[in-house]
Each structure stands twice: as structure tokens, then as C-alpha cells.
Amino acid sequence: MADYGSGLKDTLLNISTLVDLLRYRAIYQPSKTAYTFLVDGETEEISINYQELEQKAKRIAAYLQTLNAKGERALLLYQPGLEYIAAFFGCLYAGVVAVPAYPPQFNKPMLRLQAIVADAQVKVALTNTSILINVKEQFLHTPDIAALHWIATDTIADDVIDKWQQPLINSDTLAFLQYTSGSTGTPKGVMVSHSNLLHNLSLIYQCFEHQPHSQGVIWLPPHHDMGLIGGILQPLYGGFLVTLMSPTAFIKKPFRWLQAISHYKATTSGGPDFAYDLACRKITPEQKATLDLSSWDIAFTGAEPIRADTLELFATTFEPYGFHKEAFYPCYGMAETTLIVSGGLKGAAPIICPVKGADLEKNRVRTACGKQEDDRLIVGCGKSQLNQKIVIADPQTLTLCPHNQIGEIWVSGSSVAQGYWHQPSQTIETFNAYLADTKEGPFLRTGDLGFLQDGELFVTGRLKDLIIIFGRNHYPQDIEMTVEKSHPAVRIGSGIAFSVDIVGQEKLVVAQEVERSYLRKLNADEVIKAILQAVSQHHDLQAYAVLLLKTGSLPKTSSGKVQRSACRREFIAGTLNIVADWCVNPQHKIKFRSLEVEVESLWQKLQPGQHSEKVSESV
Predict the structure, then answer these.
(1) Backbone dihedral angles phi then psi of residue 186, each to the nearest 5 degrees
(2) What is the sign, positive or negative, of the torsion defined by CA atoms of 540, 541, 542, 548?
(3) Beta strands in 93-143 (DSSP E)
(4) CA within 20 to 30 Å of 102's CA: 71, 137, 186, 395, which one?
């Protein structure tokens, strides 16, 4: 059983599953509001208390039990909201393994959904009437989806609840499959047990120093680990209220996020780096003047590279409206560790480590003053938490790295999940690593690169995304940040840098979306030249190709992470939605549409002495 910390030890001694947890809340705090959902992202509220939630969960569970579905996988296909939460707990109350997913767009291919259904061997799908009507429109083209037993949970009769029976489950029982976002490859189903969840929830509770009077505001996608575990299950664990809104409501109008924090006096809220950047760029002075962010004492940030510039910009922008930079809480985690791995101290300013860029390229760490052009600022993600261990290992030799060397981040502890669903070889490779020199293990190989300094974890990038050109390591997120700053037509958070093999040599390609407002009168020559110059100046790199893409067309996960591997595949296949492009070799133009420029002439102006190259037939 998990260690729940001093705040919950006395009351949760007999809790070994999430079913036990919700039953406890429903018995002892039946009328306390558990969740409030903002239907319009602003003022239209619907709420549910613990007793009502359990009744809805039991009703769904009882129906699933009539199908003898115990141990089966059930697809959850809902828009963000209270129905999704009830369906998730309905699965747990029936001993059914939940498989959260996001409803497909109308008349759009359902390839990801079909891949999940096939991999998880899903038999049952839970949704509501309106979504089911949409999905049925595509049944003719997706017989595998049509073959599922579809249940519209809003039509289940009330009296079926009388048939519900307590499921025979324990802490080791599989609770749900968290399908990875697929930012570096094909999505895989991470097997998360009740024990994994309770242990990780206890870590979050202690890291964030939550109390029963805490208040959350969450807009994160509920079918992903941060939104589900951090945004929905953590408030249940801590017994405090959370106000939810859909990611779409936030993206369409970022002010809604901070408006909700101000209105509900939230203490905990957060999201990926792009959310803070978006708030700085989209919230107007008039909107800012209405905010009071003084209650916000945990502003967590994670799930993608954390930029020191973004933290500084947000703190400076919203300090006049009550925000304190000490509220920032950078943290690190992933689906394979249930959620959180490391975090800092509440109330302490983020730790930022300036390092020499030239040394980073050689997998070395050398601190810098932070004022030189080559210096990189890396934000610390806190220290390893209760009953967990982090080591930095050489990904080739599988030995411990010296303290000043960058290596792969390995993690061990009770939050590490059970493996990948029905993928035994990948499970052994990823979840069962041992250090070759000390024989210590097993560890989870995260696939992330980083280093430890005085116990603080600094993440530098993804192992699979690393770009190696002429023996130097380049982190794609650094190049992408440079590109973002090169020209105002470049869309923030919507660029990808990757490498391709050209006659046996790795070459850099940049794919970058254009801001919608620039599309009609785009000076592609000017934008591409700015990108080339910025990459050359800041990284001493010659881009082989630059692609300007239509707004919103870059491959991303459903949680908004850029998919570098998918982008590379689409580049090679020639399927990217290109507005204009440029390449070193004029014979390897991808799909020139609007850029009227002599390629050789421009390249020679930017990089004297360089010549075109023959392109490999494989690209």
C-alpha cells in the first residue's frame, strides 16, 4: 500500500484502489462538491459531488458487469467534462480496464483510434449519444470500430445500479492503459495499476503541499496523464475542489484560464510551456487589469521543454496582477512513470543552470555566466521524490555517467508502470534496465537526456530526437527556439527541426508553420532568409532545407506536442502542407509554390563557398 503522507495517513489507511478512495469520499463527504466544469470556459457551471459521482459510476459499472466485461478493455470516447469522469470510474467500479481516447473529428480519418483499438484489443466503447451519432457516420469505412459494443452511457437506466457488485480488485489490478502521445514513435499502451496511481498521487500531494482547502483550475486534456492524474485524480485524492474547462476553451481564449484562477481563487494550476507563452501573447491589457492571481501558489510546468525565457516573461507580465515567480513549479514526468518523477520545493524560485553550448554538443556540462551568446539556460525540474531514484546512464555502455556528463535519465520506484500492453520485448528493453557497472536495477529507461547537479534534475532533450551533424550534438528544441525568434511571420510553438541522411551525411531540415495573418501576403524569401541566417549565426549550422507550412498543419499529438519523427516521415513522403520551401540542391525542391528565388544564388550569399550536393535517392 502507498505511503500517503502525514496529511492523509490517518483517514486513508485502508485505501488500496481508486474504488476504495471514491467510496471513502462518497461515504464521509457525500455532499462535498468534487468537480465543477465550465461548459463555456467561463461562467456556465455544472458540478457534481462525491455521492453523485459514485452513483453515476456504479450505474455504468453495473451495466458493464451485465456484459461480463471484467478484465476487458473499454474505450472512453468523450469530450472533456463530467461524463468522462463518471465513465472512467465506471470502468474501475466494474473491474474493467479504461482506455482513454479523444473523439475523432467529424469526417476525419480515425487512424490513431483504430491503432489503439487494435493494440488494446478493445471490446467495449463508452461514449454519449451525440458522439456516437458522429462516430456511426464513419462505421462504413471503419469496420473495426463498428464491431465494438457501443454504449451511450447517458441512456443507461437508473435501476440497473441495483445490480452492481463490488469488483474483486486489489492494488496490483490494472486500472487503465495510458496510450503515449506518440511524439517520437507509434503510441504504446502503458499499463498503470491502482498501486502506481496511489503512489504517484501521494508524491504529487506532498510535492505540491496540497491541503483539503486547496483549489485547482485545470484545462488540460483529461485523456492524457497530466490532465487525468494531475487534474482529476489528484483533487479526489486530496479531497479538494477543482474547476475544469476544455483545452479548446483555453486555446480559443487563453484569458479564460487566468480568469478562472482569479475568480475561483485557485491555488494550483499549470500546463506546458506553450500555455504560459500563449497567455503572455494573447491576453490584452484590459483583460489583465481584471485579474487577481495572488492566490496561485503552485504554477506547475512540464510535459515539454521548459524555457527560462518563458518563465521570466510570464512572471514579468503578470507580477502587477498578483503573480509571484516563486509560484512556478517546474517538474518532470511521463506516462511510463504514471506522472510525476521529480519536482522542486514549493515557494522556491526555479533553479536555472547556465551552461556552455559548445560543451552541450559534446555531452558535457560546464557552467557558464549566462551572458555569452553561446550560453544555454536550462531549467531544473526538481529532485527525485519519495521512494524513487534517478540516475544518469550512458545509453551505449549502460554505465553510470560522471557528474559532469549528459546521459539518459533512468528512474526506479513504485510509480514506474507495469510495462507496455502486449509488447513484452519493448517492456523488457524499456522497463527492465540494469546498470552494467553496479548491476543495480531494474530501471525505466526514459529516453530523455539530462544531468544531475546537487540532486537537481536538468533535462536537455530526447535521445531519439537528437541531431548529430559532423560529430556535434544539437538539440532540436534549441534550433526551434532560434527559428521562432527569427521573424514575426513564424508561428510560436509550431516548428520542428530534424535531420535526414543525404549521401551518408546527416543534414538539417526545418519545418515551420506560418502565422495565419501572414499567409496572404507572405514574403517567403524574407522569412526563409531570416531562418537560415538565425540558424547559421546561433548554431553554426547550415540548414539543408527550410519548409514554410500552412497554419495548423504541423504533425502534433492530441496534447499539442510536436511530432518530430512523424514530420520527418511526411517530409520524406512529400506529404507536408507546404506554402513555400527552399533547399540547398535546386533539384531537390519539395513543392515550391510561392517562393520565387534562385536557390543557388541565395545560398551562396548566405554561406559563401558552399555548393549544392547530390541528394540520396532514399530521401
Answers:
(1) -70, 135
(2) negative
(3) 97-101, 124-127
(4) 71
Count of CB atoms situated within 10 Å of the CB of 184: 16
Label residue 192 by pLDDT band (50, 70, 90): very high
**Joined grid coordinates for residue 410:** 533512468
230 close to 237: Cβ distance less than 8 angstroms: no
Question: How far is it, in rounded angstroms, from Cα 356 to Cα 368?
Answer: 6
| 296 touches 327 (CB < 8 A) | yes
- Residue position matching grid coordinates 551533424: 469
* Phi, psi torsion values for 217, nearest 5 degrees: -130, 120
User: DSSP E strands: which ranges in 454-489?
Assistant: 456-462, 467-469, 472-474
Count, residues in the chain: 619
- Residue entry with cell 553510470: 400
Please give the angle made by the CA atoms of 490, 491 and 497, to the nearest 5 degrees: 80
Please state, in angstroms and rounded to a whole number, the distance separating the CA atoms of residues 488 and 522.
Answer: 11
Give the burial class of 552: count Cβ atoms within 10 A of its Cβ; 0-12 exposed, 13-18 middle, 19 or more buried: exposed
Q: Sign of dihedral through CA atoms 279, 284, 287, 293?
A: positive
Contacts of 570 (CB under 8 A, 6+ apart): 555, 576
Q: How far apart are CA 401 and CA 575, in angstroms?
A: 41
* Tens-digit pLDDT profile for residues 284-326: 999 999 999 999 999 999 877 899 999 999 999 999 999 999 9
Element (H, E) at 66: helix 50-66
Q: Quick check: helix, strand or coil at residue 64? A: helix
Closest residue by Cα to residue 125 from 150, 98, 108: 150
Q: What is the pLDDT of residue 591?
A: 38
Strand ranges across the sheet with 340-343: 45-49, 33-38, 241-244, 215-218, 268-271, 298-301, 328-333, 340-343, 383-384
The CA angle 30-31-32, to the nearest 5 degrees, is 95
φ/ψ (deg, to 5) at 184 = -125, 5
**Least confident span in 79-88, 101-110, 229-238, 266-275:** 101-110
553 or 590: whose pLDDT is higher?
553
